[in-house]
Amino acid sequence: MTDRTPTPGDERPPKPRPAPVPNPDSAPYWAAAHDGRLVVQQCTSCGARQLYARDRCLVCRGPVAWVPASGNGTVYSFTVIRQMYTRPFRDWVPYVVALVDLEEGPRVMTNIVGCPPDAVHIGMAVRARFEAVSEEAGIALFAPTD
Amino acid sequence: MSPPRGRRPVIAGVATSDYPHLPDLSEHAVHGQAADRALADAGLTFAEVDGFATTGFFPMYATGVAEYLGLHPIYFDETNSGGSSFEVLVEHAAYAVECGAAEVVLVTYGSVQLSQMGRRLGTGGGGGGFAPGPAIYDALWGNTLVGNYAMAARRHMHEFGTTPQQLAAVAVTMRKHAATNPQAQEREPITVEDVVTSRLVADPLHKLDCCVISDGGGACIVTTEERAADLPRDPVYVLGAAHATTHHLNLSAMPSLTVSPAAQCGPVAFARAGITPADVDVAQLYDSFTITVVLTVEDLGFCAKGEGGAFVEDGGLEVGGRLPTNTDGGGLSACHPGMRGMFLIVEAVRQLRGEGGPTQVPGARIAVAHGTGGMLSTGATLVLGREAP
Predict the structure, then answer these.
(1) Helix (H) or strand (E) holding B291
(2) What is the spatial distance between Cα B334 and Cα B350, in angstroms, rounded to a whole number?
(3) Phi-psi category of B317—alpha, beta or left, where left has phi over 0 and alpha has psi -120 to 50?
(4) Which residues lie below 8 Å from residue A2, measured CB to CB, with a gap of 6+?
(5) Among B247, B274, B276, B307, which residue is least crowded by beta carbons within 10 Å?
(6) Which residue, B254, B250, B283, is CA-closest to B269?
(7) Residue B209 contacts residue B335 (beta carbons within 8 Å)
(8) Which residues of A touch B203 (CB under 8 A)?
(9) Which pLDDT belongs to residue B131?
């Protein structure tokens, strides 16, 4: 995924990965990933954990705080994208988009990297690896846990 | 629904525009063509329309189409739930005429997506990193619209053993129905083998698991039983309706990839109509992708969860099969201009009037139109009947 090989015949410079623009809900999440850490929200009232970032707990509407996550998860489902028109992704086909269930409970969308697309399967153990995509934001990609 | 006698909501006219390729019509002219035809079908004129509903991709879209058509309605609605929008708009219109907020509601749809955008929409769009608000979370990974449905299909295969061949059976049946529809975009017969050997777009979905991309539109007229009594066509009753949502653009927020919002709104709509799935003679189910239909037949209760693959196999969705579905050829073969929900309603009404042509379900009395929008994000069920409730 990070091999930015341009489409043959495309003379333009490689386009970087899209970067999220942090807002008051999400800034701590993107900043943590920028620093190589995965965090989830935990309700200070009922203890439920969640992603993505909200201003409240989705179970009891109580207040939430950011807590560290292990970075370990399992693949809930995935697809291999073979047709994509938008740069930079079209330069990377085929690539894997997946939903990963974190050890702590929340589910995130991500790319599975570090293995051929054909090796990915539901239930596969994966671990977060981080990529900074702007000066203030990073994203968590996942690779097989060996 | 038990409105006062006389104010029971009915559909008094329906029409499709020309389709599937309209290079010489503007988007708004497609609305106009469909509106003209639906009003003519109902024996009504623009002057008698006092309510208007449509939706599109810009805010105040209905207002703009009303302006284009020269309408000054006292009731309007532009609820947008993606592909299920028109089931929702007709449900709302039914409530509006029931309570007297309007007498004659014109609901239109128009799109020139094929002429404007070509195939970029759906198969290879999205994922470029631009998304409104919280939608950014799932927008960073190069996922496509197809990719979302592909992940649902993969999960369904994992949990229930559903096969690519079973999914393909949906596409094969839709093509068989489309072969009898002279307007259909794709009419050449296909086999299960053709589908599973067509190019993979997003595993496990192949090109022929995906809907066509078209221009087109449609319209319907919602009014009261009393008003329809003076009109030429036999009214089709809106017996019950409901809609639901589980998430928006973040598939990660969908509680289970194998349970669509139809599981929530389907039983409610059936209960409001006083029917069970066994009472349904013909179904028009949103078929953006083959998996969409498999999930919908399960979630509406036509079979148990996990048995959708077997249900659609062996001609299960053909006329004469377990549940005759998408008798016009559906979005997979006939026409899919982006938000296909209006076509489901038009075809359901035609079936109940006995105008289904070669794919007419003999004696059809109860039809279901179920729209699915977004990334399996919304569902809306309409139960329509030939006879008064």
Answers:
(1) helix B290-299
(2) 16
(3) alpha
(4) A113, A131
(5) B276
(6) B283
(7) no
(8) 79-80, 82
(9) 75
- Residue B255: how many other CB atoms lie within 10 Å: 8
Domains B9-117+215-239 and B147-211+241-385 in one fold = yes
pLDDT tens-digit map of B95-126: 999 999 999 999 999 999 999 876 555 444 45
pLDDT tens digits, residue range B32-52?
Answer: 999 999 999 999 999 999 999
Minimum-distance CB partner of B202 among A17, A79, A139 = A79
What is the structure's pLDDT at B365? Answer: 98
CA distance B202 to A82: 6
CA contacts within 13 A on the Cβ side of A110: 32
Write down the pLDDT at residue A13: 80
CATH code for the part of the protein at B147-211+241-385:
3.40.47.10
DSSP secondary structure letters along B10-55 = EEEEEEE-S-S--TTS-HHHHHHHHHHHHHHHHT--GGG--EEE--
Q: Which of B125, B137, B113, B108 is nearest to B247 (CA)?
A: B137
Of B124, B155, B205, Cβ closest to residue A84: B124
- Residues in A closer than 8 angstroms to B139, CB to CB, are 18
Task: Answer whether CATH 3.30.470.20 is correct for domain B9-117+215-239.
Answer: no
pTM: 0.96
